[in-house]
Write a structure and sequence with these properties.
There is one protein chain. The chain is an alpha+beta fold and 249 residues long. 43% of the residues lie in helices and 20% in strands. The strands form two sheets. Strands 5-4-3-8-7-6 form a six-stranded antiparallel beta sheet, sandwiched between helices. Strands 1-2 form a two-stranded antiparallel ribbon. Strand 1 and strand 2 form a beta hairpin. The longest helix has 21 residues, at 70-90. It is globular and about 60 Å long.
Amino acid sequence: MLNRHIALLDILVRERHPLTTIELAHLLGFPVSTTYRLVSQLQQGHLLVRRGDGRYWLSLKLLSYGGSVIDYLNLRDVALPYMRELCQEAGETVFLTVADTDAGVFIEKVESSVHTLRVHLEIGRREPLFAGASMKILLAHLPQSQQRAVIERAKGYRLARGVRLDPIKLTEELERIRSNGWAASQEEMNDGEAGVSAAIRGRDGAVVAGLTISGAAVRFTPKRVLKLARLVLTAAERVSRDLGGALPT
């Protein structure tokens, strides 16, 4: 059975675009019922994701196994030069994050050498979507049904410093993030850390990633947060344009 799962994943890597269960069955030479069972098992293991059009694609969880998720390589290649420039302008570490089911994944980073006190996160790390600017910028642009499901599961969760998550305040904050176009956080994911994030959009205008400036919370004063928000918004727009993304009016 394992060989069949691997064969299915290999088909997606080879074809380089999402496929329906019927298309996968045809390419594999398997019965549709067998292919459906394989797809369901891989989806349950978070190795496949089902898109809105009913097609299946590789999950970003494969990054943590050292795999290659084809759909995001171009995003990383396009974003990296702007991330380096943003890191120099802000003097802080810069991250690139994407949503994967009910979590966010760090897929690229540029670490600042300006400060000795800075954020250290490894590529491939997963975090809940309801904590930190880098995660909330993604959550704010998910469909409402997915947002509600994530917030429901987060009830009772304790953020950094033992602060209990407030679902009502989080819902209101997500509305502000969508309206303002950027997100900010102070010591939510980890003690002593703060961040400011903006959304990167793909060709259909949908948010495909979050771009984040992160550093020690003591340096993220309200005045500086506004300055960093302008920097990260500009950088995110430039990445979006290079991706052919449709920017919001």
